[in-house]
Amino acid sequence: MRKLTLDEYASVLPLLDSIQNKAVYALSVIHGTQEGCVYVNEGKRTTSVFITSCGGFYGLAGDETNDAFTQDVIQYMNNESNHPDFFALGVYTKDWENKLHDYHIKHSRKISRTYYRFNQDRFINSYGEFDITLEKPFKYYPLDLDISTIYREQFYPYYQLVWSSAEQFCAHGIGHFIMKHDELISVCTSPYVGGGYAEIDVITIEQYQRKGLASVVGLHFIQDCLSRNLIPNWSCHTDNAASNELARKLGFEEIGEHSMYWYHV
Q1: How is 216-257 classified by DSSP, letter by letter?
Q2: CATH no. for residue 54?
Q3: Distance CA 264, CA 252 (A)
Q4: 208 by DSSP, 3-state: which?
Q5: Of the candidates 143, 166, 137, 24, which has an alpha carbon nearest to the alpha carbon of residue 90?
Q6: Are residues 89 and 152 in the same domain?
Q7: CB 114 within 8 A of CB 257
Q8: Helix intervals (H) in 67-136
Q9: Which of 112, 129, 168, 195 has the maximal Cβ count within 10 Å?
Q10: What mean pLDDT value characterizes the chain?
Q11: Distances (CA, A) of 171 to 123, 175, 186, 219
Q12: What gap in Å lies between CA 235 and CA 251, rounded to an integer?
């Protein structure tokens, strides 16, 4: 397979039409918001694409019948030096799922991911006049440089991979946070922003779950997206009942399930 130069990235966008909003990380790489690489099949006509992101999310799209391209992808996946501490290879069609079934990807297990599409009318009908309030001792904070630094360095170091600096996260990302006595306890942030979408990432410390905090930061995140003309986006493990429940509660509608090869040692 051949690695594209930055000025060639946009040429693969037609191959992502069938994926729609299922790979925001890929759109972020193509549009230059976040780092990554784009690989295509050899030859004059581009029919298959493999996109990698700085955070370890990878995706395949286009024609799955090119054996040489598929073998190059598998070789890339099985070279540990190509990955950060984590990877997740997404496949978004049954044809690609069937194609990869015959190959072994080291240090991975096959899981199922559920994908959603945001229904803005449904959200507005449910929350248009909703007053987001918190009772003490909980306190809400929007994203700023100080909280970005704390979040990336102490709470969730993965964001040091997806956003190269606290400043970049503030400039291009979205984040909403709840603290208790200066400790982060519930967050809703964007690991990837691209193609007009902002991917949602929700974490609540276990002892504070089932108190409605995830809904509060989620509502802030969605309203922030709408004010920026961004579409909030949701995907999660199919067996994550709490995440799937929250997605539907916040106005998202399921659009499908697909396999993903998730890093596992």
Answers
A1: HHHHHHHHHHHHTT-EEE-EEETT-HHHHHHHHHTTEEEEEE
A2: 3.40.630
A3: 29
A4: helix
A5: 24
A6: no
A7: yes
A8: 67-77, 94-100, 120-127
A9: 195
A10: 96
A11: 26, 11, 21, 20
A12: 13
Query: In which domain, by residue range, is 150 found?
Result: 117-256
Half-sphere exposure of 116 (CA within 13 A, CB side): 25
Q: Nearest Cα to 33, choosing from 9, 12, 15?
A: 9
Q: How many CA atoms lie within 13 A of 53 on its CB side?
A: 34
Cα(185)–Cα(205) distance, rounded to whole angstroms? 5
The pLDDT score that the predictor gives to residue 128 is 77
Q: Which residues pair with 115 in a beta bridge?
A: 235, 256
What is the DSSP-derived secondary structure letter of residue 89?
Answer: E
Question: 132 is written with which tokens?
Answer: 């987001």
- Residue 167 token pair: 């400043």
Residue 32's identity, in one-letter code, is G
256: left (phi over 0), alpha (psi -120 to 50) or beta: left
CA 245 to the chain's CA centroid: 18
- Give the helix/strand (H/E) hosting 118: strand 108-118
Residues 245 and 157 reside in one and the same domain: yes
Pick from 61, 57, 115: nearest CA to 88: 57
Low-confidence ranges of the chain (pLDDT < 50): none
